[in-house]
Amino acid sequence: MITAFYASLLGLFFTILTFRVLALRGVTLLKWLAFNNFGAQALERSVRAHGNFIEYVPMVLLMMYLAEAADLSSLRLHITGASLLLGRVMHGVCFGFMEFNMPLRFGGMVLTLLALINISVSLLIVAL
Question: Which pLDDT tens digit goes with each residue over 38-78?
């Protein structure tokens, strides 16, 4: 159930990223999410935040699920899930809602990659 916990939180954040893209594309009911609108660049960055989320999150969650099913320690799963969640929120906020913030962008990618490496190595050890 650890993977389900992080998947649900990540799913909620993904919904926020989706609403942001819709708002910037001009969906009237979602205009209230379009604060800090800096034009076409805002839409482009929001689409990238949305896409980047999809590029990393499913793979890590799938590996977390496999590792959890193989009885990997709860601590390793929580470290992976928390790193992924924090990393994706940092990166998503930087790209989706700000003009530019290198520490958030860099930190978000580092945490995401650490989560990916942690679960990959953990799963490989379990598989061997």
Answer: 567 778 888 888 999 999 999 999 999 999 999 999 999 99
Gap between the Cα atoms of 36 and 32, Å rounded: 10
Domains of the chain: 2-25+38-127 (1.20.120.550)
Please give the radius of gyration of the chain, using alpha carbons only, rounded to the nearest integer: 16
DSSP conformational letter for 73: -
Rounded Cα gap, residues 81 and 73, in angstroms: 12
Contact 72, 123 (CB under 8 A): yes
C-alpha torsion sign, points 40, 96, 4, 124: positive
pTM score, whole prediction: 0.86
**Structure-token pair, residue 82:** 């928390």
